[in-house]
Amino acid sequence: MFKVLSGNRAWVALKNSFYTSAVATMISLLLGCFFSFFLALTNIRFKALWVFLFMLPMMIPPQVTALSWIQLFGPSSALLRTLGMAPALGSPNPIYSPEGIALLLGIQHAPLVFLTMRTQLSALPKEQIEAARMSGASFGQVLKDIILPLCYSAMIAATALAFVSSLGNFGIPAMLGIPISYTVLPTLIYQSMSTFGPDMLNQVASLSV
Fold first, then answer.
1. Which of 1, 86, 135, 189 is the most buried (most CB within 10 A)?
2. Angle, to 10 degrees, between the axis of helix 200-208 and the axis of helix 185-193?
3. Helix, strand, coil % over all residues of the chain, rounded to 5
4. Does the CA dihedral 72-77-81-86 come out positive or negative?
5. Rounded CA gap, 97 and 73, in Å?
6. What is the rounded distance in angstroms from the CA atom of residue 108 to the CA atom of residue 192?
7. Is 149 helix (H, G, I), strand (E, B) or coil?
8. Would you say 111 and 32 are in contact if contact means Cβ atoms under 8 Å apart?
9. Number of compact structural domains in the chain
10. 108, 112, 106, 117: which is closest to 40 by C-alpha?
11. How confident is the prediction along the chain (209 residues), in pLDDT tens digits per residue?
12. Nearest to 159 by CA among 109, 95, 199, 96
């Protein structure tokens, strides 16, 4: 373990992992909280359909998600070509970047935040909300004084779930990070395993710890 930790690669991968996971967690929180509040606190029609659509990213393998976004932002993108925004042939794809990795991780794990928050919102004491509205409180006051304080524990749990899931995700960082030599801990462990050297198992075990 000392040999692995004394090298620079493990610390660079650790720093990269925390950066992409932290940014991805913020994206997941923004998306998941917004849609959970929107669907739980409004009377929008076809709620079941909206829930299904928002849960789709979690049902798609990370590698497929990465490939689809690579195609979306690439020079051959049908959507960007239609809009006249397709990058020139040979230009770098913006999705191959730490921020691109964080964006896809955030979208991939936003459903975890959504499920956690939606469960908490469905258990809110509706009589308190109705009493506050009947007493003249605005929706903003109800949100700030009643709903958000009751959702803090769910937000903490959702943050932890999104961060740990992003930290352990292999598919997206592998598809987008390895081509630009941007390693995170899961891809560094994979690269260490692929060497098949005499110290391979010790290195993998140390990185995992």
1. 189
2. 170
3. 80, 0, 20
4. positive
5. 12
6. 26
7. helix
8. yes
9. 1
10. 117
11. 566 666 688 889 889 999 999 999 999 999 999 998 888 777 788 888 888 888 888 888 888 888 888 888 777 777 667 766 666 666 777 888 999 999 999 999 999 999 998 888 887 777 777 777 777 777 777 777 777 888 888 899 999 999 999 999 999 999 999 889 899 999 988 887 877 666 777 777 777 77
12. 109
Token pair for residue 79?
Answer: 């959507």
Give just the sign of the alpha carbon dihedral 102, 106, 164, 65: negative
**Residue 175 near residue 63 (C-beta atoms within 8 A):** yes
As to burial, measured by CB atoms within 10 angstroms (0-12 exposed, 13-18 middle, 19+ buried), residue 13 is buried
What residues make up the domain containing 22? Answer: 2-208
Question: Tokens 């997206």 map to which residue?
Answer: 172
* CATH code assigned at 177: 1.10.3720.10
Element holding 168 (H helix, E strand):
helix 148-168
